[in-house]
Specification:
This protein is of the alpha/beta class. It has one domain: Metallo-beta-lactamase, Chain A, CATH 3.60.15. Strands 3-4-5-6-7-8 form a six-stranded mixed beta sheet, covered by helices on one side. Bound molecules: fe (ii) ion.
């Protein structure tokens, strides 16, 4: 992302011109878990990042795609980690040789610990780390060029549950608010499928997301406690 003269984040295109593809972005879907994983790559450098690569059913297609496109996985990047996912992530780390990057609060042995405001570089590409706790204490979102990957924090017309251990509805509201002040045309790619959709925009969710549209923080906390 770049900043305009007012200091606001503005979107950058993924392409510099016709036929001049400089990046790769792929969304992979695991139907049984209704989960998305993502493969991001710097085309020229051949380096890639897999975001939330562990759901069963995604790992093999993801690795095959990276191999087919001749990409080297630099990082396995987690928006968040639940207790039951630790082993799969650690196994995938040793299998690929990639570095595992996750929140400093994620329950996994990560090579790189991330927090709000950090950046992560692969090739010439830069990811910006946003702290978005609430669904879990270690939830992060990743801003890359014209899009944001929100994990289970902000879904398309939905949001993450907060009834799991360490979930916090007030924190989740603050995190969603942090995401909704991004430029309206920022593309939103969530960690789970809802309503059969795979992509939204920040502007759409500001207006139509039933979790937060028109709700105060206190109203949101009450809403989540009833979910
Ligand atoms: Fe989750």
């Amino acid at each position: 992302m770049q900043q305009d003269v007012h200091g606001d984040l503005v979107a950058e295109p993924c392409w510099t011109g016709p036929g001049d593809v400089v990046t790769i972005f792929r969304q992979l879907y695991d139907a049984p878990h209704r989960a998305y994983s993502y493969l991001l790559a710097d085309r020229d450098g051949g380096t890639a990042v897999a975001v939330d690569p562990a759901p069963e059913g995604i790992t093999l297609p993801l690795l095959a795609l990276a191999d087919e496109l001749d990409l080297k996985l630099d990082y396995l990047l987690c928006t968040h980690v639940h207790e039951g996912e630790r082993l799969a992530l650690e196994r995938l780390t040793s299998r690929t040789g990639a570095r595992l990057a996750a929140s400093e609060r994620a329950p996994v042995a990560a090579d790189v610990r991330l927090r709000h405001g950090d950046t992560l570089t692969f090739g010439t590409e830069i990811l910006h780390v946003l702290g978005t706790p609430g669904h879990t204490p270690g939830c992060l979102s990743y801003l890359w060029r014209d899009r944001v990957l929100t994990g289970d924090t902000l879904l398309i017309r939905g949001c993450g549950r907060t009834d799991l251990p360490d979930g916090d509805a007030g924190q989740l509201f603050d995190s969603i608010t942090r995401l909704l002040v991004l430029p309206g045309d920022t593309l939103l790619f969530p960690g789970h499928e809802t309503h059969g959709r795979s992509v939204s925009t920040i502007a759409e969710e500001r207006e139509h997301n039933p979790c937060v549209a028109g709700r105060s923080r206190d109203e949101f906390i009450t809403f989540r406690s009833q979910a």
